[in-house]
């Protein structure tokens, strides 16, 4: 029994050390995948804006958006944290949703599998893009 407990403790320590080394289980092992992100304003019919970003293997969309914002001065966004639902996208490139006008930013994804456009059942803080997904941030009304 004591030998079993020592082995469990040893494995636990090794796993904890792996978690402390940044990127050891994601970036170095699997690299990153490029994604395209298009900004669409369905209300004003402004021209679409498309950006390319890198996302780490199994990384969330919010991380790719933050990386894009740091490396591209033309892309800016704000979000607020909802305690129950996570990050809520408020504005993109200076255009903000407004409750009184019933406007918001909708997350859509054109999948790389068959090209269909879906509305994920999670937001930017939980959505994990697949390789070749095309992310669409659509400003629209509810």
TrEMBL record:
Residues 1-26 form the signal peptide. Residues 81-141 form the Transcobalamin-like C-terminal domain. One of its GO terms (molecular function) is cobalamin binding. GO terms for cellular component: extracellular space. One of its GO terms (biological process) is cobalamin transport. Keywords: Signal. This is Transcobalamin-like C-terminal domain-containing protein.
């Amino acid at each position: 029994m004591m030998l079993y407990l020592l082995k469990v403790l040893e494995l636990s320590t090794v796993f904890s050390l792996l978690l402390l080394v940044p990127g050891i289980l994601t970036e170095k092992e699997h690299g990153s995948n490029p994604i395209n992100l298009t900004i669409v304003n369905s209300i004003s019919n402004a021209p679409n804006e498309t950006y390319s970003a890198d996302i780490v293997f199994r990384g969330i969309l919010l991380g790719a958006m933050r990386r894009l914002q740091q490396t591209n001065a033309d892309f800016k966004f704000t979000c607020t944290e909802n305690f129950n639902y996570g990050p809520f996208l408020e504005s993109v490139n200076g255009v903000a949703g407004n409750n009184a006008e019933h406007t918001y930013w909708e997350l859509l994804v054109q999948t790389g599998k068959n090209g269909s456009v879906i509305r994920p059942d999670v937001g930017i803080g939980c959505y994990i893009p697949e390789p070749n997904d095309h992310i669409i941030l659509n400003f629209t009304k509810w």
